[in-house]
Write a structure and sequence with these properties.
The chain has an eight-stranded mixed β-barrel with strand order 3-4-6-7-8-9-10-11, surrounded by four helices. Strands 12, 13, 14, 15, 16 and 17 form a six-stranded antiparallel beta sheet that branches. The chain is elongated and about 95 Å long. The chain is built from 15 helices and 17 strands. The protein is an alpha/beta fold. Helix 9 (216-224) packs across helix 11, helix 10 packs across helix 11 (254-263) and helix 11 (254-263) packs across helix 12 (287-327). It starts with 16 loop residues before the first helix and ends with a strand. The protein has helices at residues 17-20, 25-37, 89-94, 99-120, 133-138, 146-152, 172-185, 201-207, 216-224, 226-241, 254-263, 287-327, 333-336, 338-341, 390-397; strands at residues 39-42, 45-50, 53-64, 69-80, 86-87, 126-130, 160-164, 188-194, 211-214, 245-248, 267-268, 346-353, 358-364, 403-404, 408-410, 415-426, 429-438. The longest helix has 41 residues, at 287-327. It folds into two domains: 10-285, EAL domain (TIM Barrel), CATH 3.20.20.450; 312-438, Beta-Lactamase (2-Layer Sandwich).
Amino acid sequence: MNDTEFPTNPIDCIAPCLINGEPTESEKKCALKHMDAQLYRQGENTLADFGALQLSSAFQPIFSLAHRRIVGYEGLLRAQTGKGLSLPPLTVFAEAESEAEKVHLDRLCRNLHLHNFTRFSNSDSWLFLNINPEVMVRGHHFGSFFAELLERHRMPPQRIVVEILEGQIYDEEALSEAVNFYRGLGCVIAIDDFGAGHSNFDRIWRIAPDIVKLDRSIIAQAATTARVKRVLPKLIQLLHESGSLTLIEGIENEEEAMIGINAGVDMVQGYYFGRPAAAASLTRHDAALMNRLCSRLDAYAQAERKQDDALLTPYRTAFLLACAQVQEGETTPRQASAALLRLPRTERIFMLDQQGRQIGENISSETARPQDQRFRPLLDVNGATWSRRSYFRNAVAQPGKLHVSRPYLSIIGSTSCVSLSMAFEIDGALHVLCCDLDWASA
């Protein structure tokens, strides 16, 4: 095929690759020529036609919280019918009549985004590109394309973040091959919408993504559910320890922004920080917004601490009094804890020896929630050892000091709790008095 023999149908440029293997340089040139022919300028924007649809690009900023500035943009497809009706990307791809046409559409979108992005972006920011899941695992059957496209736009591959909708790809071998291909080019690998659908950590271990984008549903739940809000920092820490940076998408208000920042996330994306816009607006962002958020973070964290302190104050006071009375041998732990047992969040009080073995049974509060009989095998604490618990380790490391644990799931009844603990000597032997507080609704 020479330069004057290009097929009139753009799909014909890639379909032969299914039979003939890797396309020739002429066939690659054919595909790129047809995609460029479908692009046209309208004002400052480059658009494309796909059948009766008009395609355009929108770019949403992604901020690094540490840097307080934009570090990348996600390229988003916008599609309109001739009557001005907007269609979501999934609907657009559903209209593709064949696998080859779907591959062509996906490549056309990437070409469109790169045309717009490279005209207005600076030389450092990332471009996040979504690749259709089917094209991700089947695109190689239609020959190479992406490296040639990046070279055509003089776009270094390290500035491209390839987003993988891992929940929609079920062929593990094909997924690994696709990840290795884009990583081999030098691209950054991101898992998109983690936490939605069938997402699982098994993919994190195997793919080892550079970035994990947490689904909007996680931050929305964290804003309304205390349990999710408490777990979010631990989830982010786990992802960090696995070797991935974290990005929360879909942040829509200041409260959600504060929760994400306080949880230790690296990057943020959402309407609160910037709505998707045409390429000409890439360099415009509200620096004052980031400065204001960061300056308010200390106040936000301090307000949370004050709230917890106010909640814990009566329990601290009653617990310290009980410890003093038990240490002085004036009364039994049950008698010394009478005031503590009357407080509404007190679940149980118990004593440990210096090896962490429990001495006697739990002293349960009358107001404690009924024991969940589904966990009956765990309710008998006879012979139980709690030496691995942080409340025990912290107490024996600093005798005479009150320690308050972080919220955790108690194995007794499987409920969220906070434990107060203090170590002191009784008859020359170290003992630890402990109190579990109900923290499920805190």
